[in-house]
Write a structure and sequence with these properties.
Layout (H helix, E strand, L loop, with lengths): L8 H22 L11 E4 L15 E8 L9 E8 L1 H11 L5 H20 L9 H19 L7 H11 L10
């Protein structure tokens, strides 16, 4: 993506650490064993791997529902979800806040938030196809769950990230960050 700053090597290390922590915390909260994640197929990508239509100028991340084509053993394809991290928006927020130490807790929160969406979609606790009003209510619910999941985590600046989310959630689009 020309003109958009992507994560560098050090930042990708933080992405990996954040994803590990996020999956561990979400697994514990929803009681998903390592062997049961196959029931919730997802992948995540950073800006370098996203198609132009997967990039957004407003959110820090988004979840897309995609379909794998059928293989020789299946009659129809299988749905899965893709978490699309928006490097440029995450890095812009960190720069705007003037604190590079904010990136790790921010990534952790965003990945927990998006994994909660994925689990709720697969469990039919919320429909992927929803009205703007339903989506806004779901964002509030997912934020509450993500906050509960992260409550026991001791990570510098995590409280600040949660407060930043609360401040952004009231935006007119109803989309908040994620």
């Amino acid at each position: 993506m020309a003109g958009r700053r992507r994560f560098g090597k050090a930042e990708m290390g933080l992405v990996a650490r954040s994803m590990e922590m996020a999956e561990e915390r979400v697994s514990e909260y929803f009681r998903i064993s390592d062997g049961n994640w196959f029931r919730y197929p997802y992948e995540f990508r950073t800006l370098a791997e996203l198609m132009p239509q997967e990039v957004t100028p407003t959110a820090l991340a988004q979840v897309l529902r995609l379909r794998r084509p059928p293989d020789h053993r299946l009659w129809r394809g299988k749905d899965f979800y893709r978490i699309c991290l928006q490097d440029h928006n995450l890095l812009n927020l960190v720069r705007r806040e003037g604190d590079p130490g904010l990136l790790h807790p921010l990534l952790t929160y965003v990945l927990v938030h998006e994994l909660v969406h994925v689990v709720r979609f697969y469990r039919h606790e919320h429909l992927f196809e929803a009205t703007p009003g339903q989506r806004a209510r779901e964002e509030v619910r997912v934020h509450a769950i993500a906050s509960e999941i992260l409550h026991p985590v001791r990570l510098p600046e995590l409280d600040r990230v949660l407060n930043l989310y609360d401040a952004q959630a009231g935006q007119p689009t109803g989309e908040g960050w994620c």
